[in-house]
Design brief:
This protein has 160 residues and is an alpha/beta fold. The chain has helices at residues 30-42, 55-65, 81-91, 102-106, 108-116, 129-134, 136-159; strands at residues 21-26, 46-52, 69-72, 96-101, 121-124. The chain has a single domain, classed as Rossmann fold (3-Layer(aba) Sandwich). It has a five-stranded parallel sheet, with helices on both faces. Helix 3 (81-91) links the parallel strand 3 and strand 4 (96-101). The chain starts with 20 loop residues before the first strand and ends with a helix.
């Protein structure tokens, strides 16, 4: 069971079109960035605020874009997700980071390290770009987890 799927999270108003979940997608694969970005843009309660190909770009942009949720790949050029993760969390303490990588499927140790560095949850990507584009289960899992994490972030933000 993943962190985002716990049913014990506080209840509150769901994000809406007037107060959408702001999402940043960080992945070096242009196909993945484009597809996940399109999925986010199609949801009435979500908005894509940024899309980056490296962790370095995301870290540089986090304070300006102020996302509620960051979908972060692990393997990227310039700065990988494991290096970027603590920098993103340090720059915006209330951000929810969802790790999305083929590494999370292959290596539970990497997933646990991500969680210990501040990731809120993880989702394993299909092994190929073709798998990403043809997997309704991956799309549903990404959107469900972004929605759950965004809701948790917005509820926590109202408590402070």
């Amino acid at each position: 069971m993943s962190i985002a799927s716990f049913k014990t999270a506080p209840t509150g108003a769901a994000p809406s079109a007037s107060d959408p979940i702001k999402v940043m997608v960080v992945d070096d694969a242009v196909v993945v960035r484009g597809l996940v970005g399109r999925w986010i843009a199609e949801e009435a309660d979500m908005t894509l605020v940024a899309s980056h190909r490296s962790g370095r770009d995301a870290v540089a942009d986090i304070a300006k874009k102020m996302p509620d949720v960051v979908i972060l790949d692990i393997e990227m050029p310039d700065m990988d997700g494991l290096t970027a993760l603590p920098l993103i969390v340090a720059a915006k303490r209330d951000v929810m980071v969802l790790m999305a990588s083929t590494l999370t499927r292959r290596n539970a140790e990497i997933s646990l390290k991500c969680l210990s560095l501040g990731a809120a949850d993880y989702v394993p990507k299909p092994e190929t770009n073709a798998g990403v584009t043809t997997s309704p289960a991956f799309k549903r899992e990404i959107l469900d987890k972004v929605r759950a994490l965004g809701r948790r972030r917005k509820i926590a933000g109202k408590a402070f």
